[in-house]
Amino acid sequence: MAINTDKLDQIVADARQQREKRLQGYREQSLRIHPWICGRCGREFTRENLHELTVHHKDHNHDNNPPDGSNWENLCLYCHDNEHQRHVDQVRGYDGMAAAASKPATHNPFAALGELLKK
């Protein structure tokens, strides 16, 4: 059975167009409502670098766009990437601090210190 690539291409193009339309809508609203400052690191933005300020959905649901902006926060590219990576780690059940604490250190750098001080 042959795949209709024209139909598939149209579906993908439509999905991208809808995503862009949705993105522009809530991004513009968030930039009007919230200050042009990263909500995590405090970096300030101007018209020249505003393209580096993203809108983060606090509940990670890109379809939850209340008009009051209560589900959005403006984050710089770096903080936004970090927030999404933390969310991915949480979903996968990985907690960096718990993982580090579960493996106690076995090396003791001062093990022979007592002998060295006796000399």
Name the helix and strand elements from N-terminus to C-terminus, one letter apiece: HEEHHH
Q: Helical amount among residues, as a percent range?
A: 40-55%
Number of strands: 2
Our estimate of the beta-strand percent is 5-15%
* Stretches with pLDDT under 50, minimum 5 residues: none
The whole-angstrom Rg is: 24 Å
Tell me the number of helical segments per DSSP (H or I, 4 or more residues long).
4
Cα-to-Cα separation, first versus last residue: 84 Å
Q: Averaged pLDDT, please?
A: 86
- Biggest pleated sheet: 2 strands, antiparallel
* Computed structural class: mainly alpha
What's the overall geometry?
A: elongated
The strand line-up of the biggest sheet is 1-2
Task: Give a verbal description of the structure.
With 119 residues, the protein is mostly helical. The protein has a domain of 82 residues. Helices cover 48% and strands 8% of the residues. The chain contains four helices and two strands, in the order αββααα. It has a two-stranded antiparallel sheet. The longest helix has 29 residues. The radius of gyration is 24 Å and the shape is elongated.
